[in-house]
Amino acid sequence: MPLTTAVEQFADHLQVERGRSEHTVRAYTADLRALVGTLEDLGVAEWSEVTLRHLRTHAARRSEAGLARATLARGTSSLRRFFAWMVSTGQLDEDPSGRLEAPRPDRRLPGVLRADQAAEMLAGERPGPPAGDGPGGEDEDVRARAAALRDQAILELLYATGIRVGELVGLDPEAVDLGDQLVRVLGKGDRERVVPFGQPARVALGRWVDEGLPVLSGPGVTALFVGVRGRRIDPREVRRVVHAATRAVEGAPDLGPHGLRHSAATHMVDAGADLRSVQELLGHSSLATTQIYTHVSVERIRAAFEQAHPRA
């Protein structure tokens, strides 16, 4: 069996049986194809011939190529999951990756908005889509206003809930309960959670659903957020909206949707929210993932101390 055949079967397993996202499957596949390239260079033609030495050679090559530590760590995780699957399906008798060590990823503190910067961003004007993006023959002023309502609702919901961009674009209107101010989100691994949002997000969502969505939505489209052509909005369009909004705030970092997620979590922790609650809101499977926000808050405390304490 060619090396690539097992990789394709594993990708199908991840997508069909495990319900992994397209992005996750693409990342795993890229890591494994890189390994296949190394194995072919080393003259390895069968997975049964792979040894720990081959895997360490591959890891060394990737490191010498200058890849980030987080990318290297993810690659090791991909290999381990792949070989575990090969053993579980009877395609291998032993797992050669059992003693393969992964480099610890850098624990960089994510860039975040200050609370006042977030407020300024949400109060800013929404320009709508760039000129020429909408189809001709329609009232462009009406469409631009509808797009502005959409962008405001996107920003308010992302900051209010901390949901991921993939979770946002997958929402349908029935997932949002404006009365109880709750949104039902399908997260990683098809895990569903219910996340509350505040009054500003409720108002922005209500205006978008009532006034904007009917203008932009195409026939038969059931998405909560749509692009200028009436179809379910693309994550790239959401990123454009968020980057434009954060760039408009003087002194604020240039952030995308994940930056708003970090900002929302950091502001909740700064305000006294317990980590377990933040973990549930963000949909983290492990509390260790959520604990990075305590590091962010400690950095803010340190900065305040060094700026204000007479003996700092």
UniProtKB/TrEMBL annotation:
Active-site residues per Swiss-Prot or TrEMBL entry: 164, 188, 258, 261, 284, 293
One matching Pfam family: Phage_int_SAM_1
Bias type Basic and acidic residues, positions: 96-109
Subcellular compartments: Cytoplasm
Domain Core-binding (CB) span(s) in chain numbering: 1-87
UniProt xrefs under Gene3D superfamilies: 1.10.150.130, Intergrase catalytic core
Keywords for the protein's UniProt record, in alphabetical order: Cell cycle, Cell division, Chromosome partition, Cytoplasm, DNA integration, DNA recombination, DNA-binding
Alphabetical GO biological process terms: cell division; chromosome segregation; DNA transposition
One GO CC annotation: cytoplasm
One MF annotation (Gene Ontology) recorded for this entry: DNA binding
Domain annotation Tyr recombinase: ranges: 108-306
Region (Disordered): 92-111, 121-142
Protein role: Site-specific tyrosine recombinase, which acts by catalyzing the cutting and rejoining of the recombining DNA molecules. The XerC-XerD complex is essential to convert dimers of the bacterial chromosome into monomers to permit their segregation at cell division. It also contributes to the segregational stability of plasmids.
Family: Belongs to the 'phage' integrase family. XerC subfamily.
Known partners and oligomeric status: Forms a cyclic heterotetrameric complex composed of two molecules of XerC and two molecules of XerD.
Protein name per Swiss-Prot or TrEMBL: Tyrosine recombinase XerC
Species per Swiss-Prot/TrEMBL record: Kytococcus aerolatus
Recorded name of the encoding gene: xerC
